[in-house]
Amino acid sequence: MKSVRVVEGRAVPLERADVDTDQIIPSEWLKRVERTGFGRGLFSEWRDDPGFVLNQAEYAGATILVAGPRFGTGSSREHAVWALMDHGFAAIVAPSFGDIFRNNSSKQGLVIVQLPSEDVEALTALVKNSPTLLVVIDVVNLEIEVPQANWRRPFVLDPSTQERLLNGWDDIGLTLRRDEEIAAFESHYAPPSWTGLVDA
Amino acid sequence: MGRTLYEKIWDDHVIAGEGETPLLYVDLHLVHEVTSPQAFDGLRLNGRRVRRPERTLATADHNVPTDPLSVPVSDPVSRRQLEALEENCGEFGVTLFPRGHANQGIVHVIGPELGVSQPGTVIVCGDSHTSTHGALGALAFGIGTSEVEHVLATQTLVSQRAKTMAVTVTGRLRPGVSAKDLVLAIVARLGTGGGAGYVIEYRGEAIRALSVEGRMTVCNMSIEAGARAGLVGVDDATIDYLRGRPGVASGDAFEAQASAWRRFTSDDDAVFDAEVVLDATAIVPNVTWGTNPSQVVALDGVIPSSIDAEADMREAHERALAYMGLEAGTPVRDIAVDVVFIGSCTNSRIEDLRAAAEVAAGHHVSPHVRALVVPGSHRVKAQAEAEGLDRVFLAAGFEWREPGCSMCLGMNPDQLTPGQRSASTSNRNFEGRQGRGGRTHLVSPAVAAATAVAGRFAAPGDLS
Predict the structure, then answer these.
(1) Do A100 and B17 lie within an 8 Å CB cutoff?
(2) Got the DSSP string for B362-390?
(3) What is the Cβ-side half-sphere exposure of residue B393, based on CA atoms within 13 angstroms?
(4) Are strands A143-146 and A151-154 parallel, antiparallel or unpaired?
(5) Neighboring chain B residues of A29 at a CB cutoff of 8 Å
(6) How many other C-beta atoms lie within 10 A of the C-beta of residue A80?
């Protein structure tokens, strides 16, 4: 994964609560065996509606999605993260997130910014009034800022997620370096067996 | 101070040196065709192997057709994904139960029924309903594809300790009220985000009184309340369920194993980070009315109005009513359905099929309803056929199909068409979940069967 130190760009307000991962990318898109090309499936049930916010010209090219509470609940499909990133999003701001979605995002370098509801509402109001406002998410100092509006808020990332984002670390590579530790665990650990399972 | 069941399993599996990120050792990694191809590709790209192929078990479930096995997979994209699973399992030495294999079925049905899902173990799968296996006292949760790749390569997961929540259900469920009605009540109580960050342990007299399959139904929907895992401590029912399963030892060796499993309960003095108590006697047959699983109403009730919703939920409430094509105040029993689906990792086990068949026996599906019964696995299907349940369903006008996830998520041809309304024993009523524009109401197997006969929402007792 690529190192992410700062995300700068325009933001698009979704203004919907409980956007589950089935909404982010419907299951018909999950049959693909590739990791790319999911952007076309992003919010595909809503994209036919010309009034849908992602279809508004003033938000074209936005890289930050401002969403409602409980964004990314439901299915574990990482395809949701791939679709958001393939579309061009680099960060999601919301009052709360689904646990698995948050985890999947951290593996791909999609920055998750959790803010209190009133701050998400304030940011939504700002970018609704002025879609061209620049929003800056600083992963080093854990701050989100709209410089032109003199609006700035801190946010929290768990230290290991922040470290991996800043360094662009690949979890598997890191864990494989701990191979001896895993082998030592296995040497004294008796895992359950299911030897009786006959491959009939 | 005592430990909770979650803490015991965590302590048994955690690998963490001084100042290091904890790794959780995985005993059983279940794999299916949808969330694994990119993970196997990642291994290939980096020249990595599967560290413990013998701890890994794969099956095809999400997009297998439920047509007779003689009918080939007609959708080329689905076929390609099923072939990729076969190629990947072959190349990396992973045991696979492909379409048509005697052990094939929905991944969360076959793990328990084969006896590979065992107490005190850590089980993961690239599927959010992995929480199902928690009914056996295992720590089981869903992961994304990057984590699937991580487990394949290292047999571990980078993990942070979760908070613990006790959901205690006092008293006994009343006759005619099922595990599904109970878990819908729990999800309604917690909301879709109430369990976020927690592992839930289900406790209390009502949980103890449930069969292990009923506990699976409850644990299955933990994720609908936002919790990655749900657990039930080991008791006699757990051990009786596992005895004689293909994956466990037999005779004295099993009994020795079983006594070791008995420690997988929370200690009496264990402290949970949160506790929620429900009264089982107050729970009634439930139906979801909206587009998330916490939008629940009694079968005896009416579609709720947004006026009664919390202020920040009103807009979502109105959107859900509009999507579902419903008006507040409509009695649930007045709502007609087009399709009834009995199946999914929530409710496709033998007890579910027995409950539905008991209702269907001697009746006929309403002429304007299509009703599908999709057993969770070939083993469930064979057992049902040995009991004659297939003949009951067929005589009553239900379709009796081959196993798979089917209409729960509509990745195979079993889908709703736009505007169609279903009564479904599955777990998610999200917009478009069962097919674009489809309208899903989640119910128990008994209510699903009665609804198929009545053509509108009904309890078994409503049928003359």
Answers:
(1) no
(2) T----TT-EEEE--SBHHHHHHHHHTTHH
(3) 30
(4) antiparallel
(5) none
(6) 32
Mean pLDDT of A35-45: 94
The single residue listed with the structure tokens 């199902």 is B132
Euclidean distance between the first and the last CA atom of chain A, given in angstroms as a whole number: 42
* 3-state SS, residue A138: strand
State how far residue A91 is from chain B, nearest Cα, in angstroms: 18
Residue B18 has what pLDDT? Answer: 75
pLDDT of residue A195: 65
Q: Collapsing DSSP states into helix, strand and coil, what is residue A12?
A: strand
For B1, residues 6+ apart whose C-beta sits below 8 A from its C-beta are B269, B270, B271
Phi, psi of B124 (to 5 degrees): -130, 160
For residue B382, the Cα-to-chain-centroid distance in whole angstroms is 20
pLDDT at A183: 96
- Please report residues of A whose CB lies closer than 8 A to that of B41: 33, 35
Instruction: Decide: A93 and A116 in contact? Cβ < 8 Å.
Output: no
Residues of A with Cβ-Cβ distance to B316 under 8 angstroms: 16-18
- Give pLDDT < 50 ranges for chain B: none
**Closest CA–CA distance from residue B249 to any residue of chain A (Å):** 6
CB contact under 8 Å between A175 and B150, yes or no, is yes
- Amino acid letter for position B187: V
| B71-124: pLDDT as tens digits | 999 999 999 999 999 999 999 999 999 999 999 999 999 999 999 999 999 999
> Residue B423 and residue B178: Cα distance in Å, rounded?
16
Which residues, 6+ apart, have CB-to-CB distance to A156 below 8 Å? A114, A142
Contact status, residue A179 vs residue A165, Cβ threshold 8 Å:
no
Tell me which of 3.40.50.2000, 1.10.260.40, 3.40.30.10, 3.20.19.10 is the CATH number of domain A6-188: 3.20.19.10
In the predicted model, is pLDDT for residue A200 greater than 50? no
Q: Which residues contact A188 (CB under 8 A, 6 or more apart)?
A: none
Nearest CA to B338 out of B394, B447, B418 is that of B418
Cβ neighbours of residue B278 under 8 Å, at least 6 residues apart?
B167, B168, B169, B170, B182, B185, B186, B189
CB pair distance less than 8 Å for B144 and A26: no
Write the DSSP assignment of B64-111 as a string of letters: ---S-TTS----HHHHHHHHHHHHHHHHHT-EEE-TT-TT-B-HHHHH
Tell me the per-residue pLDDT of A10-23, one tens digit each, with 9 for 90 and over: 999 999 999 999 99
Q: What is the pLDDT of residues B277-305, one digit of tens each?
A: 999 999 999 999 999 999 999 999 999 99
Q: Which two tokens stand for residue B209?
A: 């009184």
B229-B6-B185 Cα angle (round to 5):
45
Q: Per residue in B431-440, pLDDT tens?
A: 999 999 999 9
What is the C-alpha to C-alpha distance for residues A46 and A43, in angstroms, rounded to an integer?
A: 6
